[in-house]
Amino acid sequence: MAAQDQQPIGSGFGGKTAASEVLAGIDLTGRNAIVTGGYSGIGLETVRALAAAGARVTVPARRVEVAENTLADVAGDIEIASMDLADLRSVDKFTREYDETKRGLDILINNAGIMACPEGRVGPGWERQFGTNHLGHMAMSLALAPSMQRADSARVVCLSSTGHVRSDVHWDDPHFNNTPYDKWDAYGQAKSANALFALGVDHRGRDVGVRAFSVHPGGIFTPLQRHLSEEEMVQLGWKAPDGSIPPQVQAMFKTPEQGASTSVWAATSPQLNGKGGVYCEDCDIAKFADENSQRWEHARPWICDDEKAERLWTMSEKMLADA
């Protein structure tokens, strides 16, 4: 059904809409939210927007002191907790302590991520991007399920990317044990996994009031690019040789606040009531890709595949159980 559901609904918003505009008229007082990576880039703007609308926002952070300094001047009810997505013991500690508060969890935004990094291993030998971006978030999300079920209704938003166009999941070798490592293939795989995980969550959660969405935030210059050299960004066309940003890139790229808007829309919009499992971009449900789709837009078939979502879920559950 996921592929059939990939149809824009005419939200009235667009690629340059700011997160604050999406939330105009929406009151989140009394709602609880968790935003991973909520102290940098679009995560910071996501926290700022949700807190301004009245939500109590928890930011799990690997670097707690940095998070405290960054969020010190953000208005609203914000708390910071220690957690490292690459360390399952840390994830377990955070989720246990959150569950002990007996709060309902209305919004979970799996925003944190790494991109195109050098080859590395986390956990019991997992490829670093797949392990951090997908498996760490999956472990956290599953452990937070009781908190979400305590809410009247809940939404999970998984940050995917147009990077999913690069690669489906490497089903026979997701950790590049036998395949030469390619940082962009690994990133593409992780972003496809994020989208398929949202689809799997929606399959399981819809009957208990939990819906899930995946999101492409758009092109934004943030610390996510920290592993890319200036030369690489020139080769990608994101920058000119002199370090300036070409006008056509400026026209396409978003500010961090604009980049946060699709996450916030997916997490809160009443336009999505009764919907779920879909991939969103530019504050709307993305089109299902066809032969006319550009490489930076629309949902490719492999992230809209119910069977692949179930296959990833089963494979990932085993990885987490064996960790």
Annotate the secondary structure layout.
Blueprint: H1 2-5, H2 19-22, E1 32-35, H3 41-52, E2 56-61, H4 64-71, E3 77-82, H5 88-100, E4 107-110, E5 121-122, E6 126-127, H6 128-143, H7 145-150, E7 154-159, H8 183-205, E8 210-216, H9 230-235, H10 247-252, H11 256-268, E9 279-281, E10 284-285, H12 306-322
Parallel strand pairs: 1-2, 1-4, 2-3, 4-7, 7-8, 8-9
Antiparallel strand pairs: 5-6, 9-10
Helix pairs in contact: 3-11, 5-6, 6-8, 8-12
Brief rundown of the structure:
This protein is of the alpha/beta class and 323 residues long. The strands form two sheets. An eight-stranded mixed beta sheet has the order 3-2-1-4-7-8-9-10, sandwiched between helices. A two-stranded antiparallel sheet has the order 5-6.
Give a description of the structure.
The protein is of the alpha/beta class and 323 residues long. The chain has twelve helices and ten strands. It has an eight-stranded mixed β-sheet with strand order 3-2-1-4-7-8-9-10, sandwiched between helices. Helix 3 packs across helix 11 (256-268), helix 6 runs parallel beside helix 8 and helix 8 (183-205) packs across helix 12 (306-322). The mean pLDDT is 92.
Instruction: Sketch the major β-sheet.
Output: 8 strands, mixed
Ends distance? 32 Å
Question: If helices are DSSP runs of H or I spanning 4 or more residues, what is the number of helices?
Answer: 12
Residues in β-strands, percent: 5-15%
Keywords:
eight-stranded mixed beta sheet, two-stranded antiparallel ribbon, alpha/beta, 323 residues
